[in-house]
Design a protein that fits this description.
Distance between the termini: 82 Å
Largest sheet: none
Organism: Scheffersomyces spartinae
Keywords: Membrane, Transmembrane, Transmembrane helix
Strand content: under 5%
Number of strands: 0
Protein name: Cytochrome c oxidase subunit 1
Structural class: mainly alpha
Length: about 80
């Protein structure tokens, strides 16, 4: 009966030791002098480019209304023509 309990304790200890070794390895990799660094490529987000080149469309409700829109300006939904 004692042998079975000792096996469980041994397995738990082995898992703990492996976890500590993996953790220390990851810390050591992070502390290296940048030998494995990849060059960063700066990317402009698409939403900035899309806003600069956007064509004004007559079907945009935001451009038809006055700013700021009055409270309850429509009693029914407006019909937009495309």
């Amino acid at each position: 009966m004692n042998i079975n309990k000792n096996i469980y304790h041994f397995i738990g200890s082995a898992i703990s030791v492996i976890a500590v070794i993996v953790g220390l390895k990851s810390v050591l990799v992070q502390l290296e002098n940048g030998e494995n660094e990849r060059p960063e490529v700066q990317v402009t987000p698409d939403f900035l480019e899309a806003n600069l080149t956007r064509d004004v469309r007559d079907s945009d409700l935001e451009l038809i209304l006055s700013r700021p829109a009055e409270y309850h300006t429509f009693s029914e939904l407006p019909i937009l023509k495309s």
